[in-house]
């Protein structure tokens, strides 16, 4: 007998192509741990639906007639929505990726991502963890490249350790447990990392770190 999952992750799909929406709905509804609450054809409708239905995760396309994804992400961030936004798009150019991350997206995947990778990314996003693969991070480089200023500090060993865990999608609580430090200390390390790398958030910090060879 199949056992019900301990937690069901709710999501909505925002994409202007009905075939894509149907495909994603079918994919996620084939797994008991996910429940698709609704579908929207543009960013404006997506914001309204996310506000009404309060899903754990919003799968958001970027380029849609009637309301793009970046504006929708920014609006959800402005409203302090609980939902995490995972961008799922065919576009991987610098001009698409960075604005979405800066607007408040938790992660960024391409539509050709394998089913298991997509499921893993939605689970991570639902937990508030950054979902940014090295392949996508490399596409952000030209927009987030910030040369070190004279006298600029390099990352300490512990800061690099924290950043490596962030790059794996590890939450602050999990980082604290793994490194035997408090969550407050983790946040302090991240604040220093952001300042030293000239990054606004976790995703941007990971992208810069890949560019500078800090993460390989």
Q: Biggest sheet, open or closed, and with what strands and sense?
A: 6 strands, parallel
What's the total count of β strands?
A: 6
Order of helices and strands: EHEHEHEHEHEHHHHHH
* Mean of pLDDT: 84
Task: Supply Rg.
Answer: 18 Å
Compute the number of helices: 11
Helix content: 40-55%
Strand adjacency order, main sheet: 2-1-3-4-5-6
Look at the helices and sheets and give the structural class: alpha/beta
Could you describe the 3D structure shown?
The chain has 216 residues and is α/β, with parallel strands linked by helices. It contains eleven helices and six strands. Strands 2-1-3-4-5-6 form a six-stranded parallel β-sheet, with helices on both faces. Strand 4 (84-89), helix 4 (94-103) and strand 5 (107-110) form a beta-alpha-beta unit. Helix 3 runs parallel beside helix 4 and helix 10 crosses helix 11 (202-211). The chain is globular, with a radius of gyration of 18 Å. The relative contact order is 0.11.
SSE blueprint and pairings:
Layout: E1 9-14, H1 18-29, E2 34-40, H2 43-53, E3 57-60, H3 69-78, E4 84-89, H4 94-103, E5 107-110, H5 115-126, E6 131-132, H6 134-139, H7 141-144, H8 157-167, H9 172-179, H10 183-197, H11 202-211
Parallel strand pairs: 1-2, 1-3, 3-4, 4-5, 5-6
Helix pairs in contact: 2-3, 3-4, 8-10, 8-11, 9-10, 10-11
Keywords: DNA-binding, Phosphoprotein, Transcription, Transcription regulation
InterPro entries: CheY-like_superfamily (IPR011006), NreC/VraR/RcsB-like_REC (IPR058245), Sig_transdc_resp-reg_C-effctor (IPR016032), Sig_transdc_resp-reg_receiver (IPR001789), Tscrpt_reg_LuxR_C (IPR000792), WalR-like (IPR039420)
Domain Response regulatory: 10-126
